[in-house]
Structure of NAD-P-binding protein:
Amino acid sequence: MTIKKGEVSFITGGASGIGKALSENLVSQGGRVVIVDLNPETSKALADELNKKAGSTVAVSAKADTTVWEEQVAAYEVAKKAFGRIDYVFANAGIAEYPWIPAFDPSTAASRPFTKPNLLTVNIDLVGQLNTAALAFQIFERQEKNELGLRGKLIMTASVFGYYPCPSMPMYAAAKAGIVNFMRSAAEFYKAKDITVNLVAPNLIDTNIAPDSLFVPFRERNLLTPVSLVVEQFNTLLGSSTVTGQALSINGEEVWVHPPESVKFKENDPSCKLIDEEISKLFGYTKI
């Protein structure tokens, strides 16, 4: 879908990789972008480049560590001052796997102290995106509906590793699986509140998320997913689209909507629905 001229996108991790490609694409459609990134020099340089090319202010930058709630709120204040309404929020910032505990080695284990797990990947790829989602929902809650009857759209960046296990990347897989199930739950919760929630889940893309040497064997075997195709999938969820709850997935040149888990769904559905009803009452969600 094509966005409406002047619509505003708030993009975390917006200065590199998928986020940069999104920023450039949305501006090329006539949109305006808020480039939220941990690297203020890179994000400002991209904003300056986009503004120079457009001949007007179509981009602003804001520094934020997505794991820090207050920094994301401060980034929104920059966006609000510059552009006012936010039409789209892209929870996109992420990193690759970091070793979470020492390599398994029974021969040396007894001589080593117990090591606290490194949860940096989960903190950025899951907690950081949940911070962005929490901000998005509260922004949209304060906005009037647009001509399509929507308050706003949240689009999250996941991965096919949110569906499939990877023994060497347990933290990345855990974070992306969390995003998948969060999206499905949030989409159900907000669908009657005029907010759409979706995600895009690509396989490996040639970006700066990891050392270049990692990508060499994938290039040789033609196993990389084109970033342009990933951006196309984000675009299908924008503009006049009212789709919600979709997990758009890409592997190489193949695109599909990944279905929700269905094993034993029928047997579990009554209990799942009942707990949802009871928790909604307990938390006061049924008042609206």
